[in-house]
Amino acid sequence: MEKHQETSHKVIKKKSISHEETLTLLRQFSDKELYTKPFYSWTGTTSLEQYFQSSLASHYAWSLRDL
Question: Does the model's pTM come out above 0.70?
Answer without folding.
Answer: no
